Amino acid sequence: MDAFLSFHAPGFWLVLALLTGVIVLGVRPYLPRGVRQWSILGYWGLLPYLALITGGVSPRLMGIMYIDWRASLTLGVGLALALIALAGVARIALLADQRVIDGTAPAQGWSRLVIGGGVSGVEEWFWCFLRGAVEETLMLSQLSLDAPTYWSIWIAAALALPFALFNQANAHQRLIKVAILVMTSILFFYTRNFWLCWAVHAIAWLLLAQPVAVQVHSTGRSQAPRSPQRE
User: Fold this and answer.
1) Does the chain have fewer CB atoms within 10 Å around its N or its C terminus?
2) Widest CA span of the chain, in angstroms?
3) What pTM did the predictor assign?
4) Domain span holding position 154
5) Would you say residue 213 lies in a domain?
6) Is the pLDDT of residue 165 over 50?
7) Residue 193: inside a domain, yes or no?
């Protein structure tokens, strides 16, 4: 119980994160539209930060400090590139199902890339907090687990999954988010590197979830416009 009762214990912050998440998701539909996204981003970013500065979670277990860069730059980068390549292949396959009529394509500027990368980073920060807090809680609880790091990765993924799914607009984005959660969980298990997981998370999300404009050129014969397919 010591892992849950102390203000400096990871279990305390883990329980607080789950309870706060339920509250945030419960009140979010009643918030103004412009505040809804900021509420979940604030929750993802602020609570792990408070746990970190109070000593409630280890920066090493979160993957933000004391990183084995040799492993990250060998096995980690190779695995990351393989995961990104899979995301790229999936994106190419999805292009066949996307049609955007002339003049209706959404802007694909730098602002969209920066915002997408930033949101991915905040979400990955929260996921790494869960991974580190769960692993440290398991170690302090003295449970007889053969591989606490392995189990902590997937327990954290199970805890993060409801919040990740609830924040998506449609089934297509939910499926992508599940895939990214699995990808970064595997990558974190082998590298324990938040920064590398952030890069894979952001690139995979921008490849798979962002709409791509496909110009539909009209021929000489008049044709009835087709409505864009929903993702």
Assistant:
1) N
2) 76
3) 0.82
4) 67-208
5) no
6) yes
7) yes
